[in-house]
């Protein structure tokens, strides 16, 4: 046999072997498998853990001169945007995955953005075929319906990544009544000038509409005050997540030297104990008496009452097609098109994960250029608590509920208007330039997220000034 014929035969054998292998590794998971196992197989075949994890499996050419910087950037960006390991562990254990993680996977499968083309150079058998994609998307919907059921929405919206705000959440009425008094009580501050409501006014969207709030002695805090409305739906409290519960959050400001300035809760208890009528009513509900634990528990119970259901968007999700204008419906479509509904998922449309500020572009570098504002301790985000480098500049995603009332925006309060906040998010978080007419439609949609408090549409007194 001629040499050329042998080479040709060898190539044919290799191609056939590769084709057989390709078909084997790209076989869609069986429909008979549970949804979590199907999705696990799709993501494993797609090699998601190779980039989106703390321990990436790099290809053999990762250290080659040209490839090193390119692959290094892809791995860094991938891990910054989405650590897929907790999601995979939840699937493998048959547990509820985070709603945001689920929405991210759904978005990636829907827009066919992953795996990246360069990934195929070393993992040519890892493509997400149409069959795999369809099976994966169906599994996402099944998992969402099981672990995050959307019972309030109309059938066509029952599997959306966002859900309507419920009319109420369970709370103890007696404790909440006391908590309301304490929430507005300036005796929680050292000089009697600051209450919880000072920075989180119920008539101003649950915030104070200041870049940084004023504490005792007119001292300024280091981050923008987040809204107290719907805070019960957040997975943690504070931008850096240093409080795991509403009660833990309530215990922070009174002892903060910049905010309320008390040395200890003993000081607060002593002041409140001088009010016999209050002590008598308090001990009826809390026989153990006044303490840090009981005071913060009462405030937490009150904050559970601060939910704002029945926004125009909620009514739309429940089936009222007239609740939104045509522009707002288009805005919602754009909101999803620009991937906003991934990080801003769930009931609160946020508050479920920590996300890097500046996933696609350097937000802080841009802020320095435009506002001449250097980095502060408040910019460290989650890193301030964990000291893990990946957590630097990573913040709890804010809720978008009532966002039209809660200016200025971002953790640093550096953006005054909602429109600017939208366009900057598209640039820094998504890596896309949003057209002005698109931003206007998204803004119109976000206006529809203002809900009701105590049966009345929430307003902001500062809008009247």
Structure description:
This protein has 465 residues and is mainly α. The protein folds into three domains: 3-149, no CATH class; 173-303, Cytochrome Bc1 Complex, Chain D, domain 2, CATH 1.10.760.10; 312-460, Cytochrome Bc1 Complex, Chain D, domain 2, CATH 1.10.760.10. It has helices at residues 3-25, 35-45, 65-81, 85-93, 99-111, 130-147, 173-183, 196-199, 246-250, 265-273, 276-285, 292-303, 312-317, 326-337, 340-343, 363-371, 383-386, 418-430, 436-447, and strands spanning 354-356, 394-396, 452-453, 456-457. Helix 7 crosses helix 12 and helix 18 crosses helix 19 (436-447). It is globular and about 75 Å long. The protein starts with a helix and ends in an 8-residue tail after the last strand.
Order of helices and strands: HHHHHHHHHHHHHHHEHHEHHEE
Mean pLDDT: 91
Largest sheet data = 2 strands, antiparallel
Say how many strands there are. 4
Strand order of the largest sheet: 1-2
Quaternary form:
single chain
Give the terminus-to-terminus CA distance.
93 Å
Structural class: mainly alpha
Number of helices: 19
| Rg on CA atoms, Å | 26 Å
Beta content: under 5%
CATH architecture of the largest domain: Orthogonal Bundle
| CATH level 3 topology of the largest domain | Cytochrome Bc1 Complex, Chain D, domain 2
Name the CATH superfamily classification of the largest domain.
Cytochrome c-like domain
The domain tally reads 3
């Amino acid at each position: 046999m001629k040499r050329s014929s042998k080479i040709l035969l060898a190539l044919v054998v290799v191609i056939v072997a590769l084709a057989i292998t390709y078909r084997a590794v790209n076989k869609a998971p069986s429909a008979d498998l549970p949804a979590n196992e199907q999705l696990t197989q799709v993501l494993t075949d797609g090699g998601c853990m190779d980039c989106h994890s703390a321990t990436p499996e790099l290809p053999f050419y990762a250290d080659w001169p040209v490839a090193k910087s390119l692959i290094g950037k892809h791995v860094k960006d991938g891990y910054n945007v989405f650590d897929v390991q907790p999601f995979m562990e939840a699937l493998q254990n048959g547990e509820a995955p985070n709603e945001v993680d689920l929405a991210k996977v759904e978005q990636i499968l829907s827009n066919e953005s992953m795996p990246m083309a360069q990934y195929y150079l070393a993992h040519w058998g890892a493509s997400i075929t149409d069959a795999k994609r369809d099976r994966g998307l169906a599994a996402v919907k099944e998992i969402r319906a099981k672990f995050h059921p959307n019972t309030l929405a109309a059938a066509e919206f029952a599997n959306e990544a966002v859900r309507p705000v419920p009319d109420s959440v369970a709370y103890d009425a007696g404790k909440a009544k006391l908590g309301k008094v304490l929430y507005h009580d300036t005796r929680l501050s050292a000089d009697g000038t600051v209450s919880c409501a000072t920075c989180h006014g119920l008539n101003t969207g649950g915030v104070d509409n200041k870049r940084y709030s004023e504490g005792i002695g007119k001292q300024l805090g280091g981050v923008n005050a987040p809204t107290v409305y719907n805070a019960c739906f957040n997975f943690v409290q504070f931008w850096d997540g240093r409080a795991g519960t509403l009660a833990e959050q309530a215990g922070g400001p009174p002892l903060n030297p910049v905010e309320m300035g008390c040395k200890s809760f003993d000081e607060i208890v002593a002041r409140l104990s001088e009010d016999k009528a209050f002590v008598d009513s308090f001990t009826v509900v809390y026989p153990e008496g006044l303490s840090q634990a009981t005071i913060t528990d009462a405030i937490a119970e009150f904050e559970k009452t601060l939910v704002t259901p029945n926004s125009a968007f909620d009514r739309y999700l429940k089936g009222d097609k007239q609740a939104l204008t045509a522009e707002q419906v288009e805005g919602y479509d754009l909101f999803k098109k620009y991937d906003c509904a991934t990080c801003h998922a769930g009931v609160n449309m946020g508050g479920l994960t920590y996300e890097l500020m500046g996933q696609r572009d350097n937000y802080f570098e841009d802020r320095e250029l435009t506002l001449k504002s250097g980095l502060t301790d408040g910019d460290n985000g989650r890193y301030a608590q964990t000291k893990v480098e990946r957590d630097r500049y990573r913040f709890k995603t804010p809720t978008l509920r009532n966002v039209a009332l809660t200016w200025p925006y971002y953790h640093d309060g550096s953006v005054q208007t909602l429109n600017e906040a939208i366009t900057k998010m598209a640039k820094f978080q998504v890596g896309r330039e949003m057209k002005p007419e698109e931003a206007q439609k998204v803004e119109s949609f976000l206006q529809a997220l203002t809900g009701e408090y105590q049966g009345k549409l929430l307003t902001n007194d500062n809008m009247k000034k």
